[in-house]
Amino acid sequence: MKLKEVLELVEGRVVAPENADLEIEISKVAASDLMSDVLALSEPGSLLVTGLATPQCARTAGVVGIPVVLIVRNRDIMPETIKAAELSGVVLCVTKKGMYEVCGILYSAGLQPVYNQG
């Protein structure tokens, strides 16, 4: 599923970068507010759904190869978080919906969960 389709489903929008590639292909989703879990359980190319709106979410996504972070609950995004996303090469998005609802929508649309295979 393309990022633009994901954003339509969850009524989300891109925060940064302004010229984000909406054609990024998303097939798996990880959801966590604990960046240590993201480091341990994520897969490159997956979408991260989180309520954490600090620069750490963008930095962590960049380290593990996650191209898109979707911040839930309409959190205010600090300029430092936007900067971290841009420096990490991560597309930063936001939605008003909560994490549980977003995960349900994306799962129902056919996106698969990320599992720790190790």
TrEMBL record:
Q: Which SUPFAM superfamilies does this UniProt record tie to the protein?
A: HprK N-terminal domain-like (SSF75138)
Q: Which InterPro entries match?
A: Ser_kin/Pase_Hpr-like_N_sf (IPR028979)
The species this protein belongs to is Fervidobacterium pennivorans
User: Gene3D superfamilies given for it?
Assistant: HprK N-terminal domain-like
Name it. DRTGG domain-containing protein
Source domain of life is Bacteria
